[in-house]
Every structure is written in C-alpha cells, then in structure tokens.
Amino acid sequence: MDGGAAERPSRTIEAMTSTSDNSSVALPPMRFDLWGTADEAKPLSDSIKKLLSQAMGVDTDKDHTVDAASVTLTEPRLSESAVQDLERIVGAKNVSQDREQRMARARGKSSLDLLEWRSGDVVSAPDAVLVPGTEDEVLAILEYCSEHEIAVVPFGGGTSVVGGVNPVSGEFDAVISVDLRRFDAIEDVDPVSGLATLGAGLSGPHAEFLLAEHGLQLGHFPQSFPYATIGGFAVTRSAGQNSAGYGRFDDMVRELTVVTPKGVFHPGKQSPASAAGPDLKEIVMGSEGAFGIATRVRVHVHPIPQVKRYEAFVFPSFGVGADALRAVEQQGTGPTVIRLSDEIESAINFTSSDAIGEKSQAPQGCLCITVFEGTYEHAESRHKETRELLLASGGTSVGEGPARKWEEGRFGAPVLRDSLLDAGALCETLETATDWANAPRLKKAVGDALATSLNDSGTMALVMCHISHVYATGCSLYFTIVAGQDDQPLAQWRAAKQAVSKAIEANGGTITHHHAVGTDHMPYMTDEIEPLGVEILRGIKRTLDPAGILNPGKLIPAGAESNPS
Amino acid sequence: MDGGAAERPSRTIEAMTSTSDNSSVALPPMRFDLWGTADEAKPLSDSIKKLLSQAMGVDTDKDHTVDAASVTLTEPRLSESAVQDLERIVGAKNVSQDREQRMARARGKSSLDLLEWRSGDVVSAPDAVLVPGTEDEVLAILEYCSEHEIAVVPFGGGTSVVGGVNPVSGEFDAVISVDLRRFDAIEDVDPVSGLATLGAGLSGPHAEFLLAEHGLQLGHFPQSFPYATIGGFAVTRSAGQNSAGYGRFDDMVRELTVVTPKGVFHPGKQSPASAAGPDLKEIVMGSEGAFGIATRVRVHVHPIPQVKRYEAFVFPSFGVGADALRAVEQQGTGPTVIRLSDEIESAINFTSSDAIGEKSQAPQGCLCITVFEGTYEHAESRHKETRELLLASGGTSVGEGPARKWEEGRFGAPVLRDSLLDAGALCETLETATDWANAPRLKKAVGDALATSLNDSGTMALVMCHISHVYATGCSLYFTIVAGQDDQPLAQWRAAKQAVSKAIEANGGTITHHHAVGTDHMPYMTDEIEPLGVEILRGIKRTLDPAGILNPGKLIPAGAESNPS
C-alpha cells in the first residue's frame, strides 16, 4: 500500500488555514519563490557543488536566494468601489489586496518564474485575491468582471510550470486571482460505479485523504501531487506516475461542473460513454481556465489496492528498453507504473543524491521501474506476465530496491531544483510525446537543441531523459536539464526553450504532453493545432466568455500569431 | 483467429463496382429498402410466424415488401449550370442524378427508414450524388455549395439508424449526397507504433482485408461492420463488439483529416496524448458531418491475434450477471469481448432461430459471452483470471459452444429484421448507457416505457436487453423490440421511441451510447448536453461551416429547441 496519500494531507491542510491579513484568505502552502515550503529545503551536497563549479562554472558560494522584503510588486489597481462590489459578492473576508497574498499568487513554479523573483525586476501581481465558496458566487464574479472589464485568473495549487497562473491583464485594466480552495468537499461517493465528486480546490493529498475514508483511491500522482488541485489536474490534462495503470487525469474524469460567464454546465453528466455528439468534457479539459472555471470534478476512483509489488530492471541501452516498454504496453500486460531512464539519468538514479558526482559502483545501463497494484491475484499475474516480457526483451532484474527508492523520492526533485537555483545553477524540465517509431529521432533532436543552445551560452549542460507515460502507439519523453547560469539566466533559458520547442515541432512531437500551454507554450499552438484549430478555440471562447476576461494571454494565440503567413 | 474479416470484403468490393447509369458512380451494396442485400434475405420459420400471428396479431400472409418501381421520389432540383459546375469539380463521371443512385442514398437503415419505403409516401432523395476523390475536390465542393446555398450530406456505408444520412435540405433549395467511397486507400502503415492511415470510405471488411496483408487488425466489429465505413465509425462514435479489449472506435482514432468549408485540418496529428489544450479530435468525433467531412483516419491497429479463446457462462439473474461483469471490468481482468443477455434474450439465444417460439430444453438464466484474443500466453492468462472471477461471482460455465454460436451469428440480426418488417412485424433496437449503480433503474424504466406505449397501440411487445460494452464506471444497455405493426406503424414506433427517449433522459441514461444523433435523437440533445452545450456546438459550426450547409437538421437543435423555457 502506498503511504504517500495518507501521510501528506495534514501539513497541507494546516498550511491552508494560515492567514496573513484581516481577511480569512489562506496562503497557499508553497513559498512564493520556491517549489516547496521553506522547511523542505535541502542544502546541496559537497559533491554536487563540486560538479556545478568544476563542470558548469557555477560559483556556488554566491547567494541567489530571494529576500521577500526586497521584492517590488505592481501596485493594486482595483478601484475602491470595485473592491466593495466584489466583497458584496463573496464577503469581505474572502477578498484580499494584501501584499503577501498577492505575492503568493503572482507566479507559478517554472524556472523562469523562480528566476524572475531573483532578477530584481518589478513582478506583476494580481490586483486582488478572491476566494468564492459557491458556483453562484463564481458566476457573479464572472458576470461582474465581464461587465467591468477585469481579467480573471483561476488559481488552484499554483504549481503551473508554463505561466498558467500568472496574472496577465491582457487588454484589461486589472486582474484578479480567483482561488478555488473553498471548493474542498467530497460528495456523491458511489463505490458501486467507482465514482466520486471532488471539489476543484482539493489538493492531491487532501482528496486522497478524504477518499481513503471510503476505502477508495484516485491514484493520480504527478510530481505536483503534494500541492496541485483536482481542478487544475482536469483543466491542464495532468498525467500522473501511475498513468499506465489508471490513465491520465483526463481518462479519470467522468463529469465536470464548469462556471462560465454565460452560465453553468456539466459536460459528461450522462454516462460513461456516449455517441450524443462531440465530447464536451474534452473541450473543458485542457482549457486552462480560458473558457470557464471548473468547480467540481466527478472522477473514477477504485478500491485502495490490497498489495503493491515492485521490480526494477536494467536494459543495455535506451533503445532496447524503449522497445521493451512498447511490447509491454502493446501486449497489455498491465503494470501500474512503468518507466525507463536513459543512461545519464540512470547513472544519477543509481547514485544517492548525496553522492552525485562521485564515482559509483552501480549497474551500468538504463533503469526501468515497474510497480503493480490491485488484488493479490491481479497484481501477481500482471507482475508475472510483465516481468517475463521484460526479461525476454533484454532486461535484467535488479530487484525491488531501486523501484522502492524511486517511489520514496518521487516528489523530491522540484525541491532539489530550489537548492540548485539558489546555488546559481539552471535547472528545468520539459516534456513531449510522440509515436514509438519516432521517439529516437525526437529524443536526439531535443537533446541536440538543448546542448547547442546552452553550450552557446557558455555552459556544459547535463541533459537527462526518461519515458514515464506509455501508450499503445507512443510514449512521453521527459527531460531534466542542469547547467550553469550565465549573467542573464532568464534570457539564457528562454533561448534554450525556444530552440527546443522549435525542434519538438519540427520532429513530430507535441509541445507539451502534460505540462499544459499557459503563456510559455502559446507561441507554438498554431503549429500544434493548425490555424483552423486556433479558430475553433476562439469560437468556443466567444461563446462562453464573450468579454474575453478569462485567463487572457494564455493558451489561445491572439490574431497575428495564428496566421504566421 | 477471426475469419470474419477475411471472408467478407470480396462481396462488398464487388458490389461497390456495379453501376447503373452513364456515370461510373457505384451503387452502395445494401438494397435501398433492406439492411442486407437481396440474396441475404432469409424467410421466417413457421414457428416465428406462429409467434407473430398468435401473440402479436400480425397477419404474416400479407406482403409488406416494396416494389422499387412503385416508389415515388422527389424530383432532382439542381439547375443545369449547378450540375455542370459540380461536374467540373469532380469530373462528370463522378456526378449522378440517376433515380437508382438517388434512391440508394435517400434513407438510412432505421426501422422508420425501412417502414417509410413501405408507406407509399413520396420519399425525399438527394438531388445529386457526388463522388470526390481528393481533399481538394471535397474542399471545392464545400466552397461551391457554401456560395450557392446547397446542403451537403456526407455518405459512407449508409448504415445510419438515426436518420444521419437522410437528405435534409434545411433552409436550402437543394441537397447533394457526397459519397466518400473513393477514399479507399490504406497509407502510412507503421507496425512499430501500431498505426495506419485509412481512407474514410473503406468499409469495415475492406479495411480489415487491407490491414491483414500487413499482419494487422483494427478489431472494430459493430453490427454494421459489413457495410459501414471508417469515416462513419469516427464521426458517429461507433462502438464495436470487441470494445472491452480494443476500446470504442473513438479510442482507436489517433488523427483525422477533416475538410471543412474553411479549410483542412488534422486534429490529433501531434502525439498519442497531449496537454496542448482541448482535444480537437473529440470535437470531430461525434460531429456527424456537421462540421466537416472526414476523409482519412489514422487509427491504432494491432497484430492479428495468435489465438482466440471462447467461454460462455450462465448467471441466475441479470442483476447477478451485471455485478459479475462490473467486477471483471473494475478489476481489469482483460476479456476482449464480454456481454450479458437478460432472461428473455438469453432464452431466444439458446434457441436456434428456426425454433423460436418452440419449447426449449436450454439452460435457464442469463447468458454471458466471453472471448479472449492475443498471444497464446496473454489470452490464456486473461481467460483464467476472468473465468475465476465470473465463477466466483455466481456464474456457471456452459462451455465454448454458445460463445462460438454468438460470434457466427453476430452480424445476422439486421437481416432477420428485414424479414420481420416484410412480414408485418415491428422490429427495432435502441441503446443507452449509464453508471453501474443506475443500470437496474434505467433498464426497468426503458422496458416499462416500451411495453406501455406498444401495449397502448394494441400489440404485445417482446423486449430483450443486453450489456455489450462495459466501462469501469458503467455499461451500455441495448434493447431489441419485436411487436406487431398497427395501421400506422410509423406513428406507432415514433410514439414508442418518444416515450422511451423521455424515460432515458429522466432516468440518468444517455440518449445514445453508439447509434449517434442524426435527426432522430436531435430533439433530446438540449436535455443531453444542456443549452450551453448546444451553444458550444453552434459556435464551432459557425467557425467551420458559416453558411450552415453541412448536414443541416441533424445533431444540433435549431434555436427554439435549445431553450425549452
């Protein structure tokens, strides 16, 4: 059984009730300039510091941390009467213009976001934070803001790594952040059908904690799990580490309650599957708050597994390992988790994080992790069929140790990034997906683009890659990059990201497999979905959000960008 | 191995090359007033005739067959210049105003369609039939028709049972049927990724025949398989009998080529899964030709299975059997086919069709069919785990015989309907889906509504039901109805269908699980997807088909209907 779900909520729930001004608005648990909370921070080991300074030219003695008091935010711009009107809608205690509240919702958690705090630039913050508690209140906010030309940014866990929660005003004079945290109930638990309705503001751990009281589990564990919310998972098409067994989050969603400026609707309400026209759930999922605000999500849940089985394997090369994962998925042998690291990531995984940079006696090759959940019989039979196929496909078992170690550390990488950024290193992740046959070409193209761009900026770059989501027809490719910062790290990373994004579009990948679009991937959407696809999204937006107040400047490219001719 | 795919294409391909006028336009293989071809017709046995006459008051000696020469069609309405313009686009040999060609595309295959031929009423036919061969030609047709106010109905296999191919002119003065049969190629076969691009006009057997040359299979076997096309499967969200193993057709689609009046686009082109905004494939699937014409579909294919294993079970009641199917799907034991008939359908299934109405020594209870495909090892392990769970859930094995018998006869039921209609009986099917917990309530409500309405019309009704598609959270319910026709069988069935449709919407079902919307389910779409859902579909249609020429009067309710207030 996975202890993760049961252990984590207490801290998060506690953090959610802390407050810093007269309102009762709670602060998000993540520190404004870090992924984790301050007490999660972990200093870098001497061996990592040596690697950074010797190979990447990073001066690790220089302090890159941010002093909150020295940050300059934009001034709040809402008129007093607008604030009073909004207070009438949600109650005064659910509106805040407090600096700390605005700062906590001014940026997501991409490395660009975190570097921006460190840049000394003035940071755009939302002009106010609202915390509605009912669909009627959300609707009233959207109607008011449509009439008074105020942009609205929905806010869940604040974990976006693509600029999704950043307070872009667009053509409007002000922008508010609408925090969904009061939608935190679990309703309509139907253990027969395996369905539960969850408030959009519930964090991953909080949702699992409430489901566990019914003996049920959602089983969605993306790296953002400790902080991200049910609503955010749905509208960004999140994919979790158990996707091989339980699907992506969009596979788990049965119905959504969506509040738009034109009213409320419930796509998916009818049935598990339907031929009654286009699937409107699939329009809301991926809409990133640009069409409406999801307040409740009815999801597929399943009994807490009786057992978990673990086994790790090593493959002689990434190509051989990828072929083995493909065989497993195409045969349907049924692992809950299956993932494969490339040679570089495997070498790092086989090393304890304290010993990175040291010489290691770990096995050579590419590490593959498998986990099997379910009843005793089901997990055993799935494990047996999978391991036989992996062994027949060139794998060697290395026991359960590396799989258990992976699971224990699986939410820790973003916290390590905090320390790397504080030490003056660049650290970021990016991801794509493609057909199995195209995966080698795409992996090489991405790696080359990153190495070239970062080498041009004067640093060696460590590029690691893994497959963590498999489909019958293809797989994801997830890259982690560590390099040295130059004098202008924001520009340095933007150049690398642009180079790699162009390489992805030119080599048959999607611009994002599970991080969503936000501001950062918007310039590539016309290539991704073609001009007619952009027109469709605009048409839907005109229908649901005619004033255009919902999350402007994200997801849907503006006019000029959609016709590059 | 399933022989069905390899046996059938020859006849269909042959029928597709027959022609009846100076053009080279081929006639669809199905006879205009029947599901099957004339040589498939099978006379009713004496025992069935006795059942019809004694229990349902049907005078089986009366002849209800249709004389083609006596049918009155609407006159062609295209101007000579319009015909010349259209001939310039696709070539004169690919345009026909011939009576037989128009008649063959005047109606789909619902019982209402088939009864209408028998009613003596004037039948609306398309004003011309066009058979384009390239996306450029399709685009030119759509641009021309947008400019000249001609409605366009895409035509694949003509198997719609909801009015989907019927030539509704809407607000326009003329309507043409655009037959996709020339999009009949297989391209881009990628056996590594398990992907193949299929022409939208390929019939099910023809597609399987071409894939088999590569050792591959699609595995989509709806009852319409012998005639329906790849494009039709996609835009109507078809579900086949192997859906437990291979998914619905919408699960199989990776990418579509869609020609709209505003241009061509390719939703899904990027990758097996993406977080780059809403999934635009899901807008095209279910759009039933109202947004554009699908010309190519890239689908997930898999190796032809090494082995097929069969086993049938009997459950003491439908409720116990449904719980067993639910356990199988929620545990994920992996059958390729799993279905359960209720008591009445089981009794009929256990009887040979020649002996319906006779006393039978067959097992009592509800018949469950399972089939397992794949490699030897995979099929065996999935079979073992599934059978153990079914036995533990109250099932009794009755060996492989009934499962093989089901497979042999699985495309035959619509042909039997032809004979029943010709004999003066009513025979129709309808289907819905819902959560597992709600299935008993919905099944009872549908059965009651049918019995009440048909009894009111003066006939006893035989109502059979089965579950043929299972999901983790719910299942389909498929009903077959046999009753006696009264003097006005069209009005009689319309009243029954309205009663049952209202019962479905009032009892938590979807108006259609896999038959699509067309004209027949359109009145229920506002209940199904809410007024805001209808507005979204209208907004998409305005974007892609601003003149509104594509399949008017189908899928999307017109103004007044969408706001029942």
UniProtKB/TrEMBL annotation, chains A, B:
Which positions bind substrate? R417
Q: Name one GO biological process term.
A: lipid biosynthetic process
UniProt entry keywords in alphabetical sequence: FAD, Flavoprotein, Oxidoreductase
Spell out the Polar residues composition-biased ranges: 15-25
The protein's GO terms of the molecular function aspect are:
alkylglycerone-phosphate synthase activity; FAD binding; oxidoreductase activity
Q: What InterPro entries has UniProt attached to this entry?
A: Alkyl-DHAP_Synthase, FAD-bd_oxidored_4_C, FAD-bd_PCMH, FAD-bd_PCMH-like_sf, FAD-bd_PCMH_sub1, FAD-bd_PCMH_sub2, FAD-linked_Oxase-like_C, Oxid_FAD_bind_N
Which residues are marked as site: Important for enzyme activity? R339
Please give one Pfam family short name.
FAD-oxidase_C
Catalytic residues in the record: Y478 (proton donor/acceptor)
What are the required cofactors?
A: FAD
Q: Where is the FAD-binding PCMH-type domain?
A: 122-304
Q: Where is this region: Disordered?
A: 1-26
Q: Which residues bind FAD?
A: P154, F155, G156, G157, G158, T159, S160
PANTHER family recorded: ALKYLDIHYDROXYACETONEPHOSPHATE SYNTHASE, PEROXISOMAL (PTHR46568)
Family recorded in the similarity comment: Belongs to the FAD-binding oxidoreductase/transferase type 4 family.
Could you tell me what this protein is called? Alkyldihydroxyacetonephosphate synthase
